[in-house]
Structure formats: C-alpha cells, structure tokens
Amino acid sequence: MKKKAVVILSGGLDSSTLSYHLASEGYDLICVSFDYGQKHIKELQSAAFIAKELNAPHHIINLSFMHQFLQQSSLVNPDLANPKQDYARENMLVTVVPNRNTMMLSLAWTIACAQNAEVLAFGPHKGDNYVYADCRPDYFLAMNLSLRLGTIDSRHEDLNLSAPFLNWSKTDIIRRGAELNVPFAKTWSCYDGLEEHCGVCGTCRQRKEAFIAANITDPTKYRE
C-alpha cells in the first residue's frame, strides 16, 4: 500500500512543486486548499488544475467567514492596496494574514488523521522567513510538536508535519519543479486577480527573479 500525504495546495508555484515532489517520492496525495475570503480565486483555480493533473482528490475548505476578522491584510481587504515593491519585509507586512498557517495546518492535520496519512506537507521556503512568522523553522518545529501532542494518544503517532522546502530558495524550488515538469504556467503567484500576472507586485517580482536566477525560461504571462 502506498504512503499517503495530505498537502496544502494553494495553487502557487511553491505548493504546486511540492505536490509534484511528493508524488515523485511515491505518495498518494490528498490536496487541501482554503478559501479564507481572499480577494480573488485565481490560486484556487490553479490548485484545482494541479490536483487534477496529479489525479489527486482536492478539497477546498470554506473559511470565507473569516474575512471579517482579516481586514488588516491587503490579501483580503479590498480597500488596501497590494504592495508593488520588492519582496522585502517592510514592503510585504501589509499582506500578512495573522495565524493563517496555524488555521490551515490545524484543519489539514485533522484531515490527515482521518485519512491515515503519514505526512502533512506545506511549502514555505527560506525567502518567506523574513516576512511571515508562520513560515520560519522555529514555527515549523513548534507546530509539529503541538499537532503531534494533540493526537499522541490516538492511532496517529506516525503522522508528521513536513516542510521539505523550508531551507530552499525560490530558485531551488523552480529548478526542482523543472526536473518534475511542473506546469509553471498554470500556477498563480500574483496578489492581483487579473487575467495575467501583474508583473510588479512583490510576489511577481520574486517569481521573475527566481526564474532568471535558475536560468530557466519563465512561461508566465505578465502585464508588465
């Protein structure tokens, strides 16, 4: 029997590559995405595409009611502009969704227990560490401990939280994705929900720079 992995799949480049990476390691995937009231659904559409390509079941968890409590983030509040500067901490703080990964991981862990999975995986990388507290190594270690302590007396002692890209750069992830033939053009990074990536927001800039650094052709269509 193949091992099972529940993967948090946003539809972005990192989590999409993570899904292909886990599939290449022999896991049967269960993909989980979250609607927390973000401004657009482009990432969720990309997530559905990636899950279908991998022939994996895909569950979208509806947390849209949380948008009323997340108005301090430009990813949720339509009155807050998304930053159009480089992917640096001082520019990106307005995008922070407080406790986002904790919400997602707690719910996904329950799914992983129900599915008797060996792994719950998510895709932070070291470029996120400077901006998002819940993408840092100390958070990962503490969250894994917390989740395991919460189910230690159940039948899920072998379940672990996994973040394979935690110490990788975005460039490393793109190189790995190229090896796995990840359909990069079908992934979504942009903070704006336009028909094409805007090309100037922090995540678009980071995406562009990482493809250049990896010396891999960027198939993304940008407006600028």
What does this structure look like?
By secondary structure, this protein is α/β, with parallel strands linked by helices. The chain has one domain: Rossmann fold. It is 36% helix and 11% strand. It has helices at 13-24, 42-53, 89-92, 100-114, 137-150, 170-179, 202-214, and strands spanning 4-8, 28-35, 58-62, 119-121, 160-162. Strands 3-2-1-4-5 form a five-stranded parallel β-sheet, sandwiched between helices. Helix 2 links the parallel strand 2 (28-35) and strand 3 (58-62). Helix 1 packs across helix 6 (170-179) and helix 6 crosses helix 7 (202-214). The relative contact order is 0.18. The mean pLDDT is 93.
Radius of gyration: 17 Å
Number of helices: 7
Overall pLDDT metric: 93
This entry's quaternary arrangement is single chain
* Strand numbers in spatial order across the main sheet: 3-2-1-4-5
User: Largest sheet, if any?
Assistant: 5 strands, parallel
The level 1 CATH classification is Alpha Beta
